[in-house]
Design a protein that fits this description.
homodimer; alpha+beta; Arc Repressor Mutant, subunit A; three-stranded antiparallel beta sheet; 6 helices; 55% helix; globular; DNA-binding; DNA binding (chains A, B)
Chain lengths: 106, 106
DNA sequence: TATAATAACTTACATAAAGTAAGTAACTAA
DNA sequence: TTAGTTACTTACTTTATGTAAGTTATTATA
């Protein structure tokens, strides 16, 4: 190995390269959401979603808030650091609209 | 499932969420490179690199060129579609420099 | 009082993806 | 004839993810 890649860049792309992470952040950009909503919106399994949300919380990207109602309501939302992914997501959107044809997907 | 996410966006983020894909594209942005160079630059295993390069060729993102020297030289480079990832990579770089501290990385 | 419902997980197990290291092909140099 | 070089491929192991059932906590319903 001979890695000359900036470690900060590498860390960032490692976060985004984790399966589901990008979609979770993208989904939360539309506002705070519950576990089950994210799960069905992006089609991730509960097992992995649970794992990812913990990781993202540890990274300071996602915030978890408990509302002691019945049944309990838990909302996930983006921190400032999480919201800062917006320009990047816009770039992905822009790229996809320019370079991907609807018919050639899948 | 209830997916209301734009399929083009989803496809784009699926490409980027594949482990190593982003780093391979980033690495090739600095110019055409050989298999072994990419392998050691980003630290991916040959087995997976081989797989990813084929995928990226099929997506029209990477181009493979054979030079019949001895030993044979094969160069991988980005197509126009591949180069178009540059602004996106710049955004990742920008984000990482703003939001990641060097000391907190691994 | 017992049962059911709901949300957010967690656990156990199965399948898929990625890592490791040895092997192959094609060619030249020693 | 043997060794070296590059770009892979193959067989096998380890890790990640998917699936589906189970758990916890709380209230509503029969």
């Amino acid at each position: 190995m001979d890695k000359s890649i900036c470690p900060r860049f590498e860390k960032a792309i490692t976060i985004l390269s984790q399966r589901w992470t990008g979609l979770i952040i993208y989904q939360l950009l539309s506002g705070p959401q519950r576990f089950g909503t994210i799960e069905s919106a992006i089609g991730v399994s509960g097992r992995v979603l649970s794992e990812r949300l913990k990781d993202l919380e540890n990274e300071g990207i996602v915030k978890r808030e408990v509302f002691p109602e019945t049944p309990v309501r838990i909302e996930y939302s983006l921190t400032e650091k999480g919201v800062s992914f917006e320009p990047l997501m816009k770039e992905i959107e822009k790229w996809s609209q320019h370079w991907l044809e609807p018919e050639e997907i899948q």
